UniProtKB/TrEMBL annotation:
It comes from Anisodus acutangulus. It comes from the Eukaryota. This is Aminotransferase class V domain-containing protein. Signal peptide: none annotated. Coiled coil: none annotated. Residues 153-336 form the Aminotransferase class V domain. SUPFAM superfamilies: PLP-dependent transferases (SSF53383). InterPro entries: Aminotrans_V_dom, PyrdxlP-dep_Trfase, PyrdxlP-dep_Trfase_major.
Amino acid sequence: MEAEKVATIHGCCPNPLLILLEHQNQQPIPKIKSTTSACRHSFSATTTSSFFPNTHFTNHESLPSYQESFAQFLKTYPKYSETRQVDKIRNQEYYHLSVSNHVCLDYIGICLFSYLQVHECCNYPFFDISCKSVNLKSELLHGGRGSQLEFSIKKKIMNFLNMSSNEYSMVFTANRSSAFKLIAESYPFKTSRRLLTVYDHESEALETIVNTSEKRGANIMAAEFKWPRLRINSAKLRKLIIRKKKKKKSRGLFVFPLQSRVTGASYSYQWMSLAQENGWHVLLDACALGPKDMDSFGLSLIHPDFLICSFYKVFGENPTGFGCLLVKKSVVSMLEASVSTGIVSLVPPTKLLNSLDSSGSGTELEQKTNFVTKLEDLRISGSYSAHSSAQEKSKEESDQSIIAQGSNNKLDEKGSTDIQCRCLDHVDSLGLMQIGYRRRGTAMAFNLFDWKGERVEPILIQKLSDRNNISLSHGFLSHMWFPDKYEEEKQRTIERKKGEEKDAESQKSKRTDLGISVVTIALSFLANFEDVYRLWIFIAQFLDADFVEKERWRYSSLYQKTIEV
């Protein structure tokens, strides 16, 4: 089996966010080859030379046992043993991961609550999230602090992000895409006409902000990434950022992620500094940042005009959640009144209780009565707890409303609700160094080739991994630049994105649908060696020449349908 790594493990080195920002006016932006690149090479060399060196595996059955592999791993990377506190938290608070025997490698971002916290109480939601009929600028100017429940959760999240409420206002959004659309609908592209994005992959959120901005008259530009290591084409991006003439008006909106959700590549935040110096408004996409990354980010050095992040509910069980859009108060006045929906509010439990009527079966009424009684009892004692219902909402509401959970949420002496987000607390308790010892990167992209040298479709790999209780994702790399010496490889590698035909409006766009489809995995701070070992076992099965065909037949015999790719 051959393996083509379209992106190296960018996260296997010290977090580039820890690198101190050099002088603001220093140009060009210095490369970080001496730190991240050198460490990446060191990690690769150490793993190759120490982890079963000079061993050729012919099939998955020839791989060493889990016990032998883990012992060798600890010998090679002894600092991993200093992260036993993570295993303790996983066993106590997220025990469902072991019970279900499921490997979750498809979660990007941070969760709010632990599995134990959610299942400590009854089956009714602690609070609900529903759509608000208000535009972004109006909400930022006149929305106020919201309910005590919303205020408490906003405070929790802003503290976690190291953001000051004196400088930023925050609104909840239905999801990441909604936050991007709100910005695209509100940003003054009539006077600041450019939209410059820095993404090495396609996504629904990126497509949303690009399409919406383009319809409003924005000139769309995008950074390119050099093949084969997918580093930013610095020369081109610098030309796009730096303005030739000194003008007072803003050049436009610079949308920048510090890490790629697909490849795990990390980018220097000095690009944001350069953009600000040249009159751009900066939107920081923090959705792919790992735990505690904001601690090292240093907003005292870079103050983005907008920041978007997202949180999901429970790792390994409930991937739904909500987005957060933070806007610097000094730029709110320039925003235009938007017509888009997407802002949501948190509905306190009292509103939920008021909606409980006498309809339903006897069992349902008994559950409702027990829930009300339990809440009242807990309120008398000064605290209450509840968690989300696992039931999905109706189809009409599913796109607009999601359930969030809380547990051990205490009322202080002033009657204010103190929401406990136990997963955020776990991350804070572990700290940046321990998480760094545990996790070498947030994401990685790769492709697999069969014994004939033909690439296995990433969608098929994802479906086969599901059958092995392993959750993976697939993505589509784009905006790649191939130097002349890689022209032959470009013709062999590049492909057209599968899907529906472009509409007439998209056909006129300068954007391209050429790229590379890849398998992608994400390692949360809760991932352990066994998760990666099981992925290794699964990938090794592709050494079997008949594995794919046998799995196709097995799938069709069980479900009476073929695997579509």
